[in-house]
Specification:
Blueprint lengths: L4 E3 L2 E4 L6 H8 L16 H18 L3 E6 L6 E12 L2 E10 L8 H16 L4 E6 L4 H9 L3 E6 L8 E7 H6 L3
Antiparallel strand pairs: 1-2, 2-3, 3-4, 4-5, 6-8, 7-8
Helix pairs in contact: 1-2
Amino acid sequence: MSELENCGPLLLREPTMDDVERHFAIFGDPKVSAYVPSGPLVDKADSRRMLRTIKDHWWKYRFGHWAVSTVENPDHVIGFGGLAYRQINRKERLNLRFRLAREAWGNGYGHQLGLASFHLAFQQLDADAVHAIVRPDNQRIIQALEQLGMHQTETVRDVPDAPPSLVYSITAEAARAAQL
């Protein structure tokens, strides 16, 4: 899925370095990054580094986090997210992650992005499971993950001097059974 893909109300595409302004607007927003332990990004150089990491994942694996827009406004990126490999408790796993601009909240776009990620994982990559890491106080995202059929399966100590993050997971079998 490297070209523009239609996913219900969303369009998903591989990000480019031209997305740096929008990436910084979203990842630099303190409200959007309220549960990110490192806080919001402080400058566009941070966004360039993150986009370079995303591009490197795309180059290596032929998939990764998408730039997300809507069918109604395809030129306006409302967020970034999807799947990427990540070390979780010393195992490399497919990790679902997304961050949406505040104006996109409450429209079900996170759910649609999760479903697109499951389709990629289970239909195209033949993965066994998808995981997501969430801070324990981020109830809005915990609820979104549970609505996607994901369940907490473990914890991970990824933030020093803080409670462990929660790891939510869904297996390919569970996703098929739920017709996701």
